[in-house]
Description:
about 25% helix, alpha+beta, about 140 residues, 5 helices, two-stranded antiparallel sheet, five-stranded antiparallel sheet
Amino acid sequence: MIGGNAGRGNQIFYNNEAAQCVRCHAIFEVGGNAGPGLLGVGERLSREQLLESMVAPSASYAAGYGVVILEMKDGSTASGIVMNEDDEYITLKVGKEDIQKLRQEEVDTRENIPSSMPVMGDLLSKRQLRDLVAFLASLKAEPS
């Protein structure tokens, strides 16, 4: 995906009443914290990944934002926010303090809870999506 106007994307991020991006996402500590902060997102994700995160928000999650329900092979269940995951372990935050590190081989079934983020393709035009991607792609980490 190429093109788009980052200036218009900035206006969409902060001011579009349908999308309301700034209610859940923050840049430079301006905005909400229900979703991941976006400072430096242009360095972490490609334009294609940025677009996917807007049109299919449940396709993948930033660490600390995906919620799962696991049924274990022993019949027990575990649910929480996925803090880290690799081929061997899945680490869940359960409640405010409890962290559970579970072996992937002990998981029988997994249910990913859909993201609460609205599908932006239903709220924004293709041009607006392109502009918003251009804006997000321009976001770099703070200079050190």
